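Team,

Forwarding the record for the chain on the shared tracking sheet. I've put the sequence and predicted structure together so nobody has to dig through attachments.
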Amino acid sequence: MIEQKIYTTNEEKRVIFYANEGAPTIPATVTPETPLTTLNLNWRERDLPERERTKHVHRLHPYLGKFIPQLVEVFLRKYFRQGQTILDPFAGSGTTLVQANELGINSIGYDISAFNVLLMRAKTKHYDLEKAKREILDILEKALRKPQTETKQLSLWERGFSTYACSYLEKWFAPQSLNEMLAYRDLISNYEDQDILKVILSRSARSSRLTTHFDLDFPKAPQTKPYWCYKHSRTCIPTTTASQFLKRYSTDTIRRLDEFSKCRKNSEVTIIHDDSRYVQFPVADGVITSPPYVGLIDYHEQHRYAYELLGLEDRRTSEIGAAEQGSSQKAQQQYQGSVAAVFQNVLKSIKSGGYLIVVAADRYTLYGDIAAMCDVEVEAILNRHVNRRTGRRSSEFYESVFIWKKK
């Protein structure tokens, strides 16, 4: 156990940093009586393999910057119980909502991103699995046949796309890929489970862009010629069709929905597309959330293909901590004020004694002041080593779990 002093703007506060070197914590073994000092959250790949971190619907679609479900599970088991309601004001890809549902805890998620809201709704809907499977396979079969049978393809403009969307889609997708995806898109309105079909299409679009196989996160420019692929250690050519991805992700989605159906509960899940700084939150028992980073990710831009292909509302100007805003002192202060405003708003709906579990990579040590601005009791801060990196990133990465309590 390491003790460290944290200084706020007005007073000195003593906070305990727990650094347990024992066996990695098994989330299912955590109870309200589990001491924080016994938690070891530094899971290695062999402790927590990728297939477990991305179990069932958690991997319906790639998403940068999300925390792993096992971390959420630990604190749900520690601080909450069945029948209570958890709130996530930065709900992102819905990790908190899915894990709360697994444990029979009601959840409410807010997010400014229309794509995030779409993804969360697709993940948490209570499906008639047989009907959902029929729809997924039916639209796949019809979409792949449609480009071959149509004698005239409508232009993007004739389909109602904006000038910007036309330019983006024609720039980033080969003609055959785009035609196959548009055929799929045109059919979605004929089905009931439209959100899950849109997620399959979006995931397929992400993979079928004209980009290198090793840079699907934020490609800078279309790749139109053969290239040396660091992922496959050979020369690869850009993708020219989407059909293989539509097939692959349709099958994968059916499997993941089926897996989640075996562990989900009937607890309530509410998802709202709005800015958490200004909404009136419903009453909740506590919070588990992971706010955006400072100046690292443009959360709308990482799913630009979905926004343009599906015509989603773009509210990027309301993003907190967007990469394009940078990480200057001014940007940090703006971020700090915005995140504090969210938690100050959240606290209005949380009862005295309620917990706020906040997971953040506090590179600029902003969260001590955020806690002071919100006048919460800092019960503990747990630092953990995130030693699994994806893609070509290999630098060391740490994040903190701030355990706050409403006075």
